[in-house]
Amino acid sequence: MATCSKHPEKVIRTFQGSSIKDPSELSENVARRVFTFSQQRTKWRKLEDNFEVGDLFTQQTTDSSIRFCETKQKLSQTCCKLESCTMETPKVWVPDPVSGYILGKIIDIKAETVSVQILNSNEVLTVPYESTYAAEELDDKDVDDNCGLMHLNEATLLNNIRLRYNRDQIYTYVANILIAVNPYFEIKNLYSSETISRYQGKSLGVLPPHVFAIADKAFRDMRALKESQSIIVSGESGAGKTESTKYILRYLCESWGCQAGPIEQRILDANPVLEAFGNAKTMRNNNSSRFGKFIEIHFSNKFSVVGGFISHYLLEKSRICSQSRGERNYHIFYQLCAGAPLELKKKLSLSSPDKFQYLSKGCTQYFTSQETEKLLNKDSISSDQCQKGSLHDPMLDDIRNFRTLDKAFKYG
Length: 412
Ligand SMILES: Nc1ncnc2c1ncn2[C@@H]1O[C@H](COP(=O)(O)OP(=O)(O)OP(=O)(O)O)[C@@H](O)[C@H]1O
Ligand SMILES: [Mg+2]
Fold this sequence. Notes:
A seven-stranded mixed sheet has the order 8-9-2-10-1-13-14, sandwiched between helices. The chain has a five-stranded antiparallel sheet with strand order 6-5-4-3-7. Strands 11-12 form a two-stranded antiparallel sheet. The protein is built from twelve helices and 14 strands. It is α+β, with helices and mostly antiparallel strands.
């Protein structure tokens, strides 16, 4: 990072990565967390695994477990009553290997098991009592905040997030924790400048859940409480942590960085540099960060952005000399081979990736767009690239990214 103010008034920190090395770094107010979650790569039923970090969530699940146990007892009593009155039986969620949980109606209750008639099917499942979960009255109604669910349990929580995801509402709260599901496509206007202005100064919950709302709350708390704030972004690989962090940074810089001039641009420019040297294509994510990072955005006493500081840890050093098949070394090597001007290539004796011992064992194809593919020099193309062509990802382009990196270095 080229610039950082030595005596910032207050800072907003974001921690990004699956683990935080030194918890004492979290000494100041840990205000909020963002969980990112990749629906495409993990079955819904595995969502539970991603929540371990959230104290608040744990607290709420404990409360809700108690509530749920009580509910179960009531459910059993109600079932007996309902049976005798021949009224409609209650709906429950039962585990399913494909969907996580499916909805059914209790048709029989034994000492240890219940028989459930699956909705819209003739199937009847007999499952242990403990593996059923009480369902909400309306199964297609979603809530912005999981705490608003009548029955908060694993199945209703997953169903709420799934309903929202199917409506392109990728964000859901659990109080002041935000759960984000990676949509893997651009949702129109979700991160536009108009959306940024809409979220400015609005309390959490006034507008639909959004990563901007979390950034705004951090800013407002910093201003009101005069204390530094932290945002933790965590989740599995490919869940969208890096993208969420970039949106938080953009929100803070666009909203309160206008007077900062080049500093705002420098903070944003640090990302392409970090990603070139610290991100690589893996089997799970074409732009996988192989390091954790800790970003500070510094604010003046007038609460405008005056600087930033980024520290990083856990760089996967082994990737430099060996990569698995289908994976690549750090982006910088391919960016140089594909995008560097001829003069620089000559000076560094650069040719195609398969000519280098440290690149040849992994994937040697470049990421390009249709336009930049035409700019590739014959000498820079590996035999694999010749046969299979380029890799495509809207977020990655080795030629374009080299230019951005070059510009960012000149700026600093
Ligand atoms: N909010 C979003 N909208 C659209 N696409 C997204 C969003 N978040 C992530 N993606 C897509 O998912 C890909 C992976 O996201 P990202 O690199 O942020 O994952 P990550 O959690 O940082 O993974 P890793 O731990 O491997 O670094 C991105 O390159 C992008 O294509
Ligand atoms: Mg990442």
